[in-house]
Amino acid sequence: MAxxxxxxxxxxTDDSQxxxxxLRSRILAAHSATLALEGxxxxxxxxxxxxxxAERVPGADKPLTAAQRARLAIGPDEPVRYRRVRxxxxxRVLSEADNWYVPARLTPEMNAxxxxxxxxxxxxxxxxxxxxxxxxxxxxxxxxxxxxxDPLFEVDAVLSTGAGQPFCEVxxxxxxxxxxxxxx
Length: 184
Prior knowledge:
Blueprint: H1 13-29, H2 33-43, E1 52-56, H3 66-71, E2 81-89, E3 92-101, H4 108-116, H5 121-124, E4 131-138, E5 151-160, E6 166-175
Antiparallel strand pairs: 1-2, 2-3, 3-6, 4-5, 5-6
């Protein structure tokens, strides 16, 4: 799902920085980045259908670090699955995410959905009543006029069940495609 449209104008620079701050605040306050992004899509009318799809990005799995395994409360031999996706709303890619999850802590139906569909992780695991715990937020040097694929900020988070059991770690990069475009 390529994003073309370098000729599409962004909202003015001051508005862009305010929008980036508002998006970051919305993501950090939410228990589900998927729901937060879908609300953002609906509020800013980024697409006719504000529901996200997860486009898998092919490539080698990234191994978990020892610190990530500790945050997930798993040993060195516990199986973990890795998924890299681009979350899109209509023809806009809003974010890219590296997602490591413990399949034994999900239902067989959840694992099958993650393996065989374009359903975003947050929608699949909603029955677990997930709670997000932010590990770190990083912001690149701001661009005066961020392009569609320019990173706006990154969030590392751990998802736990409503009962407190961690089951997933994500590294999310939010992109300029999440910003509403100025009318031409």
